[in-house]
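Weekly puzzle thread! Below is a chain. First person to post its structure in token form gets bragging rights.
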Amino acid sequence: MTERAAARTVRHEGHWFDIIALFVMGATWGLQPALVKAVVEGGIDEVTGLTVTLAGVAVVFILTLVVRGKLFQVNSWYLRFFAISGALGYLGPLLVAFAVAEHISAGLLTLIGSTTPVFTVLLAFAVGIERVTARTFLAVAFGCFAALFVLLPENALPNPEMVGWAMLAFAIPLFYSFDNVYIAWAWPKELDALQAAAGEVVVATLLLLPFCLLRMDAQTFDGSLTRGWPIIIALVLATAVEVYLFFYVIRARGAVFASFGSFVTIFAGFLWGYLLFDEQPTVWIWASVGLFCVALGLVIKPARAEQWDQP
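Winning reply:
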């Protein structure tokens, strides 16, 4: 663990609350694709939808900061932190997703995205911001096998031409991994989870705005935003919960633990499918859930994790 990170670490005791937070974060993250699909099918461009969503989340966070009396003055160090984390967490993955979306399936893209914990563990180990043990690597391995069980059979590459695009898609989990590790390493200690989340979302919205304006046309404001406001509000609220808990979990338990939210998201998607569309889970899904439980048990068993103050 680096001197810089160690200076901000203390013993954290909210063990079960952190686990619940991880699951809620993954569940809300898993709900977002369905909401995004509904927004897009309503005639709203993906970039416009994301920008509007983040702007709504920014409003929610700022109002919450006002109510709680936690508005803060932005300095150059904070601005750099927000800009880098916003670029790594939103702008970079979005650009890569648009580049590969027409060449590989959504399922394969999800499978590739589920490798985020692998890269996060490797980066955390290389940088030294967390204590990474053989147990951690084993947990990641079980998580990856769990994802492979349910995603690989239907998303294998049908032809060699997709290999290059699939390799490019691995930039998405790389971006997320760098974002996880960078946030854990560079987090300004004066900011709590809500303040950090608010700052990143505001700056990420500003980063996406030029791309949103470039893709806009006369149909963007043909009433789609007005007609789809209930879904957009639901997406804003789900995203606000997910983003806040992401920052909370990173501060409470570290980048590696937070990265396991990508595994939770996969199974949350199946849960939402069962609850909303009565989609019955297969034996492979149940086997995958068992593997994931083993992975989570390995990564959360230590009761004395050296992490940051509670937000």
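Puzzle host: Confirmed. Bonus trivia for everyone else. Residues 47-212+228-301 form one domain.
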